[in-house]
Amino acid sequence: MIPARVPRVLRMGPARLTAGLDHCRRLDLPAHRTLHGVMEPLELGELISYANEVDMRGRGGAAFPFARKLRAVADTAGSGGESVVLVNGAEGEPASSKDAMLLTRNPHLVLDGAVLAAEALGAREVVVATAGGEVAEASVAAAVAERRAANVSGGAESRVPIRVVGVEERFISGEGGALVRAVNGEEGIPPGRKRRAAVSGVDGLPTLLSNTETYAQFALLAEYGPEKYAEVGTGKEPGTILLTVSGGAAHGAVIETPTGTPLADVLALCEAGPGDGVLVGGYHGAWLSPEAVRTAVISREGMKLAGATLGAGIIVPLGESTCPLGEAARVASYLAAESAGQCGPCRLGLPDVARAICALAEGTGSVDAVRRSVRVVERRGACFHPDGTARFVLSALDAFETEIATHLEHGSCGRPVRGVLPMPERAAEPEYRLEVDWSRCQGHGLCAHLLPEFVDLDDYGFPSFRKVPGFMAREARRAVDMCPALALRLAQTTSDAPAPVGSPLRLVKNGVLRRGGESVPRLTRVGGGAPRISGVGETAR
To answer: Which residues form the NADH-ubiquinone oxidoreductase 51kDa subunit iron-sulphur binding domain (predicted)?
Structure first.
């Protein structure tokens, strides 16, 4: 039985990716083959031609042409060379559930697309990387077992090896370089330098890397052929698309809809009005005003015209009962805590951005201060995380201009922060504190140079310390080891429990966020987690 945390499924128009899900909670292999038939292998050139004909793009956010990825891997591997097909199911974005839905309820459609590509490339194996719980991973593992059992009993399933790998769930876990590192047994953070998976990916081999929905769409394209595939959707962007609608919607769901559908119709299906704004594209996306929502359509081109990016198909209406600026501050603080901490813009810049927008939400900051902090991180990061966070924050400044003026004048807009924007529920992480032996300390100040965000020096050069989050423990130990007077030591402390959703934030001295009467270190995750969407198997026609 599938737990209630799996999102419900709705649809507008024909059922393709979601076919059969109104009758089955999960499509096993016999049910999948009844709906879609046995997958026939196709030559690489034919598959590339298919993908080019419908301009198939990746559905993970970057919208990179899939045919170019196929060709790049084939060219790098060369004749007879090894390659790998990697399915990115590490859905680190808290507001997205479409990949989890596909892997949990319709895993064989995803596997069909991945195996199809693997056979055409002559790949060594298919790797499915999942994150965010045992449900999706167990469903995919069961699907792989079903295929093996079918082969044993004389079935015609492909014998390309399929490996399922669980990776740590973090916001950055779905970034391509971070995912490849995690699959290779390394720390799942972006590599710092841009590495094309098509050149060197899993085990250093050329790797076809794309997200879960992309492979499911690829399977449908091979099943239907380009002409039938393009019977729905727009001429430039044919087919259907999966959207995750949550936030202030009365009925959050994963929705399959043809491209070109008005955004207002999608919101109406979920009983959600535009409210004070709609976030499109997730936490690296942008806010649309209520006026823009009325004319926006679901497509890459349509969202670009409206001033947003479709990204991974995330739609989060805010509603009217929560403080928009407070919600944006929650997300900015979460994104600062989710960084890899390996470059200056993430390690230093994103906490500054979070502090600046939290101060604005308390009516004590300024728009100029937020913009200055954003300019420091833009186009300077080791990965896209700083730029995506900057886009979200700048969009919030534009979308909530009236609310910002009210906060600056009165200190609040009068509405509580209800935690409408989804956040993951996290277990408490270890935190550390630096302690000093004052009989040894000589005020060299090297600790402040090595850890400027956690160490302040007084007028005499002696340090005071703030709590250090777990992901910075390595740098803190380095400061301890390099102290010339051997005056420092690092001690673990118990981190504060997550605060209740919607409790007010206020900024106090030394960059510490306070919620009610408790203090929360500036890099800890603030805000609680919105409940996952419940209910499965519901459709709308």
So the answer is: 325-370
CA distance 381 to 353: 14
Q: How many CB atoms lie within 10 A of CB 522?
A: 24
Q: Which two tokens stand for residue 119?
A: 């056979």
Its sign, for the CA torsion 437, 442, 445, 446, is negative
Q: How many CA atoms lie within 13 A of 228 on its CB side?
A: 9
- CA 364 to CA 359: how far, in whole Å? 5
Tokens of 481: 């080891």
With b meaning 16 or more CB within 10 Å and e meaning fewer, what string describes 416-443? Answer: ebbbbbbbbeeeeeebbbbebeeeebee
DSSP bridge partners of 159 = none
Query: What's the one-letter identity of residue 417?
Result: V
Q: What is the CATH number of domain 325-417+501-520?
A: 1.20.1440.230
**With b meaning 16 or more CB within 10 Å and e meaning fewer, what string describes 37-66?**
eebeebebeebbebbbbbbbbbbbbebeeb
* Tokens 């895993």 found at: 107
CB atoms within 10 A of CB 69: 23
User: pLDDT tens digit string along 285-296?
Assistant: 999 999 999 999
3-state secondary structure 410-467: HCCCCCCCCCCCCCCCCCCCCEEEEEECCCCCCCCCHHHHHCCCCEEECCCCCEEECC
Of 191, 467, 183, give the one whose Cα is nearest residue 351.
467
Q: Could you tell me the CATH superfamily of domain 9-229?
A: NADH-ubiquinone oxidoreductase 51kDa subunit (3.40.50.11540)
Between 242 and 430, where is the model more confident? Answer: 242
CATH topology of domain 431-493: Alpha-Beta Plaits (3.30.70)
Give the distance, in angstroms, between the CA of residue 479 and the centroid of all CA atoms in the same chain.
33
- Cα–Cα distance for residue pair 466/501, rounded to 1 Å: 25
CA 184, CA 234: separation in Å to the nearest integer?
Answer: 39
Q: What does the alpha-carbon distance between residue 103 and residue 122 come to, in Å, rounded to a whole number?
A: 24
Burial 223-241 (b: 16+ CB within 10 A, else e): bbebeebbebbbeebbbbb
- Of the candidates 55, 67, 14, 12, the residue with the CA atom closest to the CA atom of residue 238: 55
Name the average pLDDT for the chain: 86
**Tens of pLDDT, residues 28-60:** 999 999 999 998 999 999 999 999 999 999 998
Q: Please, what sign has the CA dihedral across residues 64, 66, 69, 71?
A: negative
Instruction: Provide the pairing of β-strand 463-465 with 505-508.
Output: unpaired
pLDDT at 483: 93
What is 244-317's CATH topology? Ubiquitin-like (UB roll) (3.10.20)
Distance CA 521, CA 541 (A): 48
> pLDDT tens across 135-175, in order?
889 999 999 999 999 988 887 888 899 999 999 888 888 88
In the beta sheet, which residues pair with residue 238?
233
- pLDDT above 90 as % of the chain: 64
Q: What is the pTM of this model?
A: 0.82
Reference 113, options 81, 151, 87; nearest CA is 87
